[in-house]
């Protein structure tokens, strides 16, 4: 409830409490007593969004305030829905007769009522009864003050059936609206943190080069996708001025999470050395299931652990069943490639799961990028023995070739013929 008016003698708390009553009682009291006590100015409530309400005075934006009686504005605040929001009041005062205005804000008798009382301080006490003014009142309810500023994000939380709103501050900023810079990071520190998280994704380049060299084109495409979206997601997920978003933040985050899990999935399946048709079927099914699970719970731990465990089961089964053609076939492969790659992967998981906190995120997550990208380069299996490195461009452009023996002869008319025992044939390129 807002009470606007002149009161040369400030009312005691008891008198104010008597004037502030619940919504129905206040309206009835104002209508019955009329100008002898209160002037009720109707206000409507407009619900805009969650914990976002605008109050608007009916008929005119300005509220007339006279010295004879106070003017009341009743704001209906719903306890269950509006709890956790911030009530903002903007007052614009046009005094007359050289008077001044001192507002007094206090809560009403119940938690859903609000009262604002004004007293005039006239320049001449004899003109007190003639004092008049207009006050423009703008009131609205928002989840966070000033949208938490540059270094914060407004968040809505629901616990035990109650909805709360608050600011989540970054870069060392604090306070109700993230305006306290006591422990704030400098611009240089913010830029360094952004560079650490983004440039560390370039460690995927060796893994991409090895995958292309060994003709693992699908795997290389997944690594390129992961490197691209991880780089720009972390460039967008920064507080302050060191921020660059090429698309919506939620889209970048989803693509980064998807690429990370899919990279692990395709790498382990590639190590299993199953038949190509089965491998690509598992690729597609796994990606579809991973995309669905990320949509349901993006930050769930089983979104990463589930595909990893299932792919490891496939890997172990393939290595045991194909004992005669088991990969790897030599101890050198274990010592110089598999064991270093597995060690790097386990260290990366330990850093991500147990060491990463909000304070050291910029450094530990950078280590996570480096370890994962390096482990992929070690774990990728070698190319097939019957294929030469970089043989894939010839296979992409080859169609048919003419094969003929050395005993072919040339007729007098220039046409191609065969000698005794010779032949001319058209055949596809050899694999």
From TrEMBL:
Q: How does it sit in the membrane?
A: Multi-pass membrane protein
Question: Mind telling me which PROSITE patterns this protein's record contains?
Answer: EGF_1, EGF_2
Predominant cellular place of this UniProt entry's protein: membrane
Q: Which organism is it from?
A: Sphenodon punctatus (Tuatara)
Transmembrane stretches, start-end: 192-216, 277-295, 301-322, 334-355, 361-380
- The UniProt record lists the EGF-like domain at 167-178
Please name the InterPro entries in this protein's record. Answer: EGF, NGX6/PGAP6/MYMK
Q: Which family does it belong to?
A: Belongs to the TMEM8 family.
This protein's GO CC annotations: plasma membrane
Annotated region (Disordered), positions in chain? 1-36
Start-end of Polar residues biased regions:
18-36
Subcellular location per UniProt equals: Cell membrane
* Name by which UniProt lists this protein: Post-GPI attachment to proteins 6
Keywords of the record, alphabetical order, are: Cell membrane, Membrane, Transmembrane, Transmembrane helix
The keyword Cell membrane appears for this protein: yes
């Amino acid at each position: 409830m807002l009470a606007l008016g002149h009161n040369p003698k400030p009312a005691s708390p008891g008198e104010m409490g008597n004037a502030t009553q619940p919504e129905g009682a206040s309206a009835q009291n104002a209508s019955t007593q009329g100008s002898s006590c209160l002037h009720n100015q109707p206000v409507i409530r407009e619900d805009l969004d969650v914990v976002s309400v605008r109050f608007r005075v009916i008929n005119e934006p300005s509220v007339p305030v006279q010295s004879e009686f106070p003017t009341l504005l009743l704001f209906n605040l719903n306890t269950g829905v509006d709890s956790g929001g911030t009530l903002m009041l903007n007052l614009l005062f046009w005094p007359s007769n050289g008077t001044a205005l001192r507002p007094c804000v206090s809560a009403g008798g119940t938690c859903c009522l609000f009262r604002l009382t004004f007293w005039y301080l006239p320049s001449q006490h004899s003109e007190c009864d003639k004092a008049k003014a207009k006050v423009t009142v703008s009131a609205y309810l928002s989840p966070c003050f000033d949208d938490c500023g540059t270094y914060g994000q407004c968040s809505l939380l629901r616990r035990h059936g109650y909805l709360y709103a608050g600011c989540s501050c970054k870069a060392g900023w604090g306070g109700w609206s993230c305006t306290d810079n006591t422990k704030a990071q400098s611009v240089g520190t913010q830029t360094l943190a952004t560079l650490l998280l983004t440039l560390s994704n370039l460690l995927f380049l060796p893994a991409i080069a090895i995958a292309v060299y060994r003709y693992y084109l699908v795997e290389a495409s997944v690594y390129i996708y992961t490197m691209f979206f991880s780089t720009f997601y972390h460039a967008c997920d920064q507080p302050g001025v060191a921020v660059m978003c090429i698309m919506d933040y939620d889209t970048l985050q989803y693509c980064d999470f998807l690429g990370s899990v899919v990279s692990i999935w395709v790498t382990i399946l590639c190590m299993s050395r199953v038949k190509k048709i089965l491998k690509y079927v598992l690729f597609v099914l796994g990606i579809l299931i991973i995309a669905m699970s990320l949509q349901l719970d993006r930050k769930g731990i089983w979104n990463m652990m589930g595909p990893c465990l299932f792919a490891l089961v496939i890997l172990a089964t393939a290595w045991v069943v194909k004992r005669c053609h088991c990969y790897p076939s030599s101890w050198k492969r274990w010592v110089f490639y598999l064991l270093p790659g597995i060690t790097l992967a386990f260290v990366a998981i330990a850093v991500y799961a147990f060491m990463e906190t909000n304070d050291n995120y910029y450094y530990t997550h950078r280590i996570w990028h480096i370890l994962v990208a390096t482990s992929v380069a070690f774990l990728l299996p070698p190319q097939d023995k019957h294929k030469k490195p970089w043989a894939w461009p010839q296979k992409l452009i080859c169609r048919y070739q003419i094969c003929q023996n050395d005993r072919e002869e040339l007729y007098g008319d220039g046409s191609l013929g065969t000698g005794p025992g010779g032949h001319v044939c058209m055949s596809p390129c050899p694999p």
